[in-house]
Design goal:
Elements: H1 3-21, H2 31-38, H3 43-53, H4 58-63, H5 67-78, H6 106-117, E1 126-130, H7 136-145, E2 149-154, H8 157-169, E3 186-191, H9 199-205, E4 209-213, H10 219-235, E5 242-248, H11 253-265, E6 268-271, E7 288-294
Parallel strand pairs: 1-2, 1-4, 2-3, 4-5
Antiparallel strand pairs: 5-7, 6-7
Helix pairs in contact: 1-3, 6-7, 9-10, 10-11
The structure holds S-adenosylmethionine.
Length: about 300
């Protein structure tokens, strides 16, 4: 930790300790500063230190505030997302309830790692994720890259339900319209089927960045995705979004079919160089690729 960061954490801790021991009103605590500090890699350590200085403080253990006060404090504290972990509820089966979206796939982990290493691609931007599944990539991006807004999307009812749960589990709220701009990422979960979505619905998102992980597993699915990409290129009121598609190369055809169709549609693409930071445990031997697409001009759907 840099000396100035350490100083910031120490004064934040002191502020929590003094206010808690004096049983000051909870809104007077420096929650906003805490949220910012928790986004740093040492977020969990700071949370633990706050617990030690408040509910576990020797004075508090002997002569603590009311149980109700401590409970309200703790429930506010655990709502704060810490920057170094993502908690997920997901299925143990690869396919369940007729969908592949209830479990996290390797390409999602790979794309999350790439994003964490390249936060500038997402910071302060509106990100639309297609086929979010359990939500790992998006949650990692929300915690590590500070997008302005993040729209998770999927077509499957059960996947959407699990996704909403996972968003809440990680301390983000899902209010459709937040009246006050809190400065943190505005997170939404949208029902979006690539076979049905219209250009006007896509246009409403006004995404600066569009991402998708492991969505090229059937030819029909790839074609549906291409339909959306072409619409996205045509419907933007501002400049076309940057698009990143990550996929596991399961056979020689996986990427080839996609890139052939991209070429046919006049969508330029390039393969991103592999990143160096490996954070997650996944099949090391599986080849995973991230393509960056340049959506320019009119493509017609
Ligand atoms: C293999 S899973 C990948 C999930 C997640 N991105 C990951 O990598 O862990 C594919 C996801 O795409 C979604 N999907 C498939 N076809 C879709 C369509 N036509 N419209 C929207 N989502 C679709 C599925 O519901 C599923 O969540």
């Amino acid at each position: 930790m840099a000396p100035e960061d350490h100083e910031g954490a120490t004064s934040l801790l002191q502020s929590f300790e003094r206010r808690f021991l004096a049983a000051r009103a909870l809104p007077s605590f420096p929650w906003q500063s805490l949220e910012e500090k928790l986004r740093e890699p040492s977020g969990s350590a700071l949370l633990l230190a706050i617990l030690q200085k408040t509910v576990k403080h020797p004075v508090c253990v002997q002569h603590g505030p009311s149980v109700k006060y401590a409970r309200c404090f703790l429930s506010k504290l655990i709502q704060k997302p810490s920057g170094d972990s993502v908690t997920l509820s997901e299925s143990t089966a690869i396919v369940s309830h007729g969908t592949t979206g209830l479990v996290t796939w390797d390409a999602a982990l790979y794309l999350a790692e790439w994003a964490i290493e390249n936060p500038a691609a997402f910071t302060d931007r509106t990100v639309l994720e297609l086929g979010s599944g359990a939500g790992l990539t998006g949650l990692a991006i929300c915690k590590a890259c500070y997008p302005r807004a993040y729209i998770f999307s999927d077509c499957h009812a059960q996947v959407l339900e699990q996704l909403r749960g996972n968003v809440l589990l990680n301390g983000f709220s899902l209010e459709p319209h937040t009246p006050i701009d809190t400065g943190s990422t505005k997170v939404t979960v949208a029902q979006l089927d690539w076979d049905e979505v219209t250009a006007s619905q896509l246009s409403d998102f006004q995404a600066d960045v569009v991402i998708a992980a492991d969505v090229l597993y059937y030819w029909e699915v790839t074609l549906s995705l291409l339909r959306v990409l072409k619409m996205l290129a045509d419907c933007q009121r501002k400049s076309a979004p940057d698009v990143y598609v990550a996929y596991t190369v399961r056979s020689q055809d996986t990427g080839k079919l996609f890139t052939t169709e991209l070429d046919r549609a006049g969508i330029y693409w390039e393969e991103m160089p592999p990143h160096t930071g490996k954070l997650f445990a996944y099949e090391e031997h599986s080849a995973i690729v991230i393509l960056k697409l340049m959506l320019t001009g009119r493509h017609g759907v």
